[in-house]
Amino acid sequence: VRPIGRLKNLASLDLSDNAIQDISALSSLVHLQSLRLDRNQIQDISALSSLQKLLELEVSGNRIRNFSVLETLPQLYQINLRDNPIDISTCSGKWADACEPDSTGR
User: With 0-12 CB in 10 A as exposed, 13-18 as middle and 19+ as buried, what is 50?
Assistant: First the structure.
């Protein structure tokens, strides 16, 4: 994932099904609007806090427990959190319902 961090003007990125664990290099993609990270091995999504233009996020099928970073993404309007071991206490505000175990987040 590290080389992708140099592509600063990317608007859309699909990294589904890549056994990715570390997404810290994505924090420099500040123009990203759509991001697919489903079916990887990601546990920490705090690097997404710098993606202030992010509109859509797909992170289903990972190992993410903490979704508090969602509150820092003002443009985000669509998210899929399914199949993650979600700690419900990390979800608040407009995304609290998306963290419910049976919710698709859409």
Answer: middle
Distance from CA of residue 18 to its chain's centroid?
15
Contact predicate 2/25, CB 8 Å: yes
Q: Global pTM?
A: 0.87
Q: Mean pLDDT, the chain, as a whole number?
A: 89
Percentage of the chain exceeding pLDDT 70: 93
- CB atoms inside a 10 Å sphere around CB 37: 25
Strands 34-36 and 12-14: parallel
Among candidate residues 19, 52, 13, the one with its CA nearest the CA of residue 36: 13
| C-alpha closest to that of 26 among 41, 17, 13 | 13
Q: Which residue has the tokens 């990270």?
A: 37
